[in-house]
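Budget justification aside, the reviewers requested a transparent look at the raw inputs and outputs of the sequence design task funded under Objective 1. We therefore reproduce one unedited record. The lines immediately below are the structure tokens for a 611-residue chain.
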């Protein structure tokens, strides 16, 4: 058992950790250096122990507890850093408030001013009230799902690396150290809910003529309680491996339910509500209770509004109390792992490596046991690549499921575009194609894995550019199957010949996804383009255009003929759309071939100097 740490040594160790702690919040690894320095200070009178084993919480006694002294010393040493951070946070809040006032407050005030002068917005009231029951249930369930998924890789209690690597390794009580981070997560989660509650107040006040104080109060019940419940659920998932397993298991079903609720909300707006099903959804859980509260001051109020509000407020308060007590029980190794993961994701985002950030989140979230799906090995060598691609997709059913789910809103948007006119039809068609592109992109993961490290392609007898083109075969085939199934469903529901536009869009969308898969390393130099004389900079726009080059070209070009074909539904318009789609697919594949041909040269190290 290690000897107790005396006060001078503890203060010296705290000073060393505080000096490094302010810098370790940016991903520099200073937490490990602070921990090493602290160990050296504590053991300076024991040189014979080169690497003493740190004491555990079970070995510490009340005499070893220097929590209050250590935190007081850290507050004093970090005061300059804390003042700088306060200025940064204040400036960020000021900018956020300014954006909300300019883009939300001023237009809302103008709408209320026009309403006072006779403008009538109540024509939108019935549609809004029809959308609210299923729409709020979908939004509430999505909020809880996102919070739970966050708990799988990060969680609401993630202190900086300096805290997890150095401070919590010493005899301090974890609860006073971790509680501020939990309540910070609660505040950050409640802020968007507060903004949405104000938006709901404005919408109900304009379209339903509800009193603004009543609308705001009822909207705040769900807007604040649901995010806070999500934070509590995220802490449970972060702390409990069993809850994490349940979260992974239920995620696909919850995602399908969110999509179904969103579809039902759209159908209700279109004039096809299902009253009994909406009543069941409203009383099915917290996501529905928020809808009951939001509808309480409106003519479409559901009986039991006060009871639903109590069902939200009481569990939220109880959950916060229990979560506040459970903060100290999160294991230190888990906190260290989550802090490193969060730091890695933040570093990837700062360097605009979005795929690296996604892979880091996916790796930290974990998953269930991989499926051991087997396919008969092909007898012809040229079929090995397609066999590998199909097998990799079958062993990752989540990607196939996401492709199917994204196909549904693509079809629904296409149906809406069929009845729209003018620019609205083109915009809705672009949205439908965007969902279709996202569905096709789920099937292109084998191609993206190939471009992550071109050395993986060393087994292939094909040049790398030709290999990448062959990676588009399996996604195109699966995409055509999904599109044909969707077109068949539309035709069975009474749709016209325009339903066959669905499979026509697959080749160019897969080709656009292949263009993006072959973009290579992030071109961060594009972000630093020189400022324009007018005071702006095109760097962000240029980088965004480079990053999403494939869909940025494909979607607007395809939307023109597809929008016309959706409205007309004639054979000539379908033939025109087919020709444009095939020509665009060929051009995009040529572009992807050219991009892929440059990747091996970009991955090679530079020429060596003279030996």
């Amino acid at each position: 058992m290690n000897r107790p740490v005396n006060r001078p040594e503890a203060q010296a160790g705290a000073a060393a950790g505080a000096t490094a702690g302010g810098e370790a919040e940016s991903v520099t690894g200073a937490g490990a250096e602070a921990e090493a320095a602290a160990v050296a200070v504590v053991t300076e009178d024991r040189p014979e122990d080169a690497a003493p084993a740190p004491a555990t919480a079970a070995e510490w006694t009340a005499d070893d507890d220097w929590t209050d002294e250590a935190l007081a010393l850290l507050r004093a040493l970090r005061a300059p850093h804390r003042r700088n951070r306060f200025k940064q946070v204040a400036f960020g809040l000021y900018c956020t408030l300014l954006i909300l006032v300019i883009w939300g407050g001023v237009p809302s005030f103008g709408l209320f001013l026009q309403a006072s002068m006779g403008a009538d917005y109540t024509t939108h009231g019935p549609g809004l009230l029809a959308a609210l029951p299923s729409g709020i249930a979908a939004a509430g369930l999505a909020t809880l799902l996102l919070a739970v998924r966050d708990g799988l890789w990060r969680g609401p209690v993630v202190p900086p690396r300096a805290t997890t690597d150095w401070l919590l390794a010493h005899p301090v009580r974890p609860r006073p150290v971790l509680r501020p981070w939990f309540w910070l997560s609660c505040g950050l989660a409640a802020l968007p809910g507060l903004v949405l509650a104000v938006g709901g107040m404005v919408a109900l006040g304009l379209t339903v003529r509800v009193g603004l104080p009543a609308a705001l109060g009822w909207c705040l019940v769900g807007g604040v309680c649901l995010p806070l419940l999500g934070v509590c659920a995220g802490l449970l998932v972060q702390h409990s491996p069993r809850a994490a397993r349940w979260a992974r298991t239920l995620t696909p079903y919850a995602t399908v339910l969110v999509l179904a609720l969103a579809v039902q909300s759209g159908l209700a707006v279109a004039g096809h509500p299902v009253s009994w099903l909406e009543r069941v959804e409203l009383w099915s859980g917290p996501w529905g209770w928020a809808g009951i509260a939001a509808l309480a001051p409106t003519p479409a109020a559901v009986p039991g509004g006060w009871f639903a509000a109590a069902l939200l407020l009481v569990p939220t308060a109880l959950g916060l109390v229990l979560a506040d007590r459970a903060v100290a029980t999160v294991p230190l190794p888990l906190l260290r792992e989550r802090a490193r993961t969060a730091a890695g994701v933040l570093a990837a985002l700062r360097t605009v490596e979005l795929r690296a950030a996604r892979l880091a989140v996916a790796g930290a979230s974990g998953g269930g046991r991989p499926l051991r799906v087997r396919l008969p090995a092909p007898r012809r060598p040229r079929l090995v690549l397609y066999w590998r691609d199909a097998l990799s997709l079958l062993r990752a059913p989540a990607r196939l499921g996401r492709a199917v789910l994204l196909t549904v809103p693509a079809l629904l948007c296409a149906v809406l575009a069929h009845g729209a006119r003018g620019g609205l039809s083109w915009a809705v068609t672009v949205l439908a194609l965007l969902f279709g592109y996202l569905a096709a992109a789920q099937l292109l993961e084998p191609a993206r894995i190939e471009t992550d490290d071109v050395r993986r392609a060393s087994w292939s007898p094909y040049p790398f550019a030709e290999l990448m083109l062959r990676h588009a075969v399996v996604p195109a085939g699966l995409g055509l199957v999904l599109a044909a199934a969707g077109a068949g469903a539309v035709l069975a529901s009474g749709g016209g010949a325009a339903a066959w536009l669905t499979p026509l869009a697959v080749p160019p969308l897969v080709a656009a996804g292949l263009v993006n898969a072959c973009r290579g390393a992030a071109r961060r130099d594009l972000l630093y383009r020189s400022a324009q004389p007018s005071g702006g900079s095109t760097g962000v726009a240029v980088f965004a255009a480079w990053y999403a080059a494939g869909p940025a070209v494909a979607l607007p070009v395809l939307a023109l003929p597809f929008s016309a074909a959706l409205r007309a539904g004639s054979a000539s318009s379908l033939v025109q759309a087919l020709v444009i789609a095939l020509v665009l697919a060929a051009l995009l594949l040529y572009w992807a071939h050219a991009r892929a041909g440059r990747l091996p040269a970009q991955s090679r190290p530079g020429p060596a100097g003279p030996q």
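The chain has 25 helices and no strands. Residues 1-55, 606-611 have pLDDT under 50 and may be disordered. Computational costs for records of this kind are itemized in the attached budget.
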